[in-house]
Amino acid sequence: MFSRVRVGFLRATEATELEAETRVKLNYLDRIAKFWEIQGSSLKIPNIERRIVDLFSLSKVLTPSTPRHLPP
């Protein structure tokens, strides 16, 4: 019985985490879309091999989390 309760708790937690991540991604895309709207254009999300590029994940990979200092 304890394992059933624990599994249910993990699933609820995982669902909450997914919802939070989805909100963060949607907020990110909304900010990009607003930027392009101000520039007088519209946001066009690219496709690679018929798959939509996840711009949020791409930005996380390309943007370092801590500043990197180059040696002199």
What does this structure look like?
- With 72 residues, the chain is mainly alpha-helical.
- The protein has one domain: DNA polymerase, domain 1, CATH 1.10.150.60.
- Helices cover 62% and strands 6% of the residues.
- It contains two helices and two strands; from the N terminus they run H-E-E-H.
- It has a two-stranded antiparallel ribbon.
- A hairpin with a 2-residue loop joins strand 1 and strand 2.
- The radius of gyration is 19 Å and the shape is extended.
- The relative contact order is 0.08.
- The N terminus is likely disordered.
- This is ARID domain-containing protein.
- GO terms for molecular function: DNA binding.
- It comes from Aldrovandia affinis.
List keywords for this structure.
72 residues; mainly alpha; DNA polymerase, domain 1; two-stranded antiparallel ribbon; 2 helices; disordered N terminus; ARID domain-containing protein
